[in-house]
Amino acid sequence: FSWLIEAGMTGMTTSQLLSELCERLVELGVKLERGNIALSTIHPQVSAFMYTWRHGEGMVVNTNVLHSDDPGEGWFASPFFFMISNGVSFMHRPLESENELDFPVLVDFKDQGMTDWFAQIFDFGWGFQDGWREKSAGLITSWASSSPGGFTKEEFSLLRRAIPIFALALKGIASFEAAGTVLETYVGRGTSRRVLAGQIKRGTARSISAVLVYADLRGFTTLSDEIDNADIVGTLDQYLERMAGPIEDAGGEILKFMGDGMLATFALKDQEHTDICKTSMIAALKMISGVKELNVERQADGFLTMELDVALHVGEVMYGNVGSQNRLDFTVVGSAVNEVSRIEGLCDQFDTNFLISSEFVRASEHQCDQLESIGRQSLRGVRKPIELFRIRGGAVFTNNYEEANLHFIG
């Protein structure tokens, strides 16, 4: 089984690894009817990945167990829950004997024609806990035969040698996937790829031209003073979800959440300036409309609300690592970042939720015909005044920009 070690080093997927292991075992003469694994993971939405292989059918289950899922009575009545709760790493049950069917799922397997079943659990030592699992178990595996008499002594010997190697290979794959998930969750998709590629040296950065999106919730301080501390995070998450979704859907990158604010970018390419500007502007409009829709829902339920202000700007920024020797942040820095935050700060003064810089308007080649200039404005800490634009006539923001009377040329 040297191929298992190689697979763990070359990055074969979990599904591929399980499928190939089962097929190879069958080729070696093991009467394997079913192979199943549940793999714990570090993920903001997913608690575990579950895969099931059946002889003659291949992979029949490939599903995610969500943190929000109720495990139900089936989990608590399962041999896996018993094993994890009691620190049992191996369990074997011949299914042809009624005396061994001490869990409901084993009766189901017997009814499906299976004759033998065993499970083995491997704790990867990751240490994280999940709400309904009393103890963390990196990998849960189970294996079943439908051959009369069950697994032979030789088959058991082969399986008991192969499965720990399989678990080790899977740990290598899963550890890298978990690292990627954690990085993507906290620093964004594009940045996570760069960090995983080894670009973590302090001071390394490259110049990029980008649309900068700066968004901030108006009234967060007042709201946080009025509601219970226990509700602040949940409330903020509701708003940040409406802010982040349109950016991610449009292909932008959220660089960071800053309390009640957000900084995102859309990298500009020479031949696609106008398209990217249009995409980023529609995303900004959808952010604002999404928050307005949320406010309607919250008001109907008697909850306090906040407004969202957004600024769009274009500029050259340095994209890379800044920080101390042992604590880095992969982000964008430069005068344009300071400018876009100052632009957003003027929204309240000009009675609008949306301000756009003249640099953005030029980069978009004046695609939107519903903008009006509010003149050149002085920005705190910025040497030269910048001409700013807002949407003419206070258009209504909706998720369909055409309904907001916004027309894009070209």
Number of strands: 14
The number of helical runs is 12
Task: Characterize the largest beta sheet: strand count, sense, and whether it forms a barrel.
Answer: 8 strands, mixed
Specify the helix fraction band.
Answer: 25-40%
Uncertain spans: 131-135, 395-405
Overall body shape: elongated
What's the short version?
The chain has 410 residues and is an alpha+beta fold. The chain is built from twelve helices and 14 strands.
Structure description:
The chain has 410 residues and is an alpha+beta fold. It has helices at residues 2-10, 14-27, 72-76, 79-86, 104-111, 153-187, 189-196, 220-226, 229-249, 273-300, 335-344, 358-363; strands at residues 34-40, 46-54, 58-66, 90-94, 116-122, 139-145, 205-218, 253-258, 261-267, 307-323, 328-333, 354-357, 371-377, 386-391. The strands form two sheets. Strands 7, 8, 9, 10, 11, 12, 13 and 14 form an eight-stranded mixed sheet that branches. A six-stranded antiparallel sheet has the order 3-2-1-6-5-4, with helices on both faces. Helix 1 (2-10) packs parallel to helix 6, helix 2 runs antiparallel to helix 6 and helix 9 (229-249) runs antiparallel to helix 10 (273-300). Residues 131-135 and 395-405 have low confidence and may be disordered.
How would you summarize the topology of this molecule?
Layout: H1 2-10, H2 14-27, E1 34-40, E2 46-54, E3 58-66, H3 72-76, H4 79-86, E4 90-94, H5 104-111, E5 116-122, E6 139-145, H6 153-187, H7 189-196, E7 205-218, H8 220-226, H9 229-249, E8 253-258, E9 261-267, H10 273-300, E10 307-323, E11 328-333, H11 335-344, E12 354-357, H12 358-363, E13 371-377, E14 386-391
Parallel strand pairs: 10-12
Antiparallel strand pairs: 1-2, 1-6, 2-3, 4-5, 5-6, 7-9, 7-10, 8-9, 10-11, 12-14, 13-14
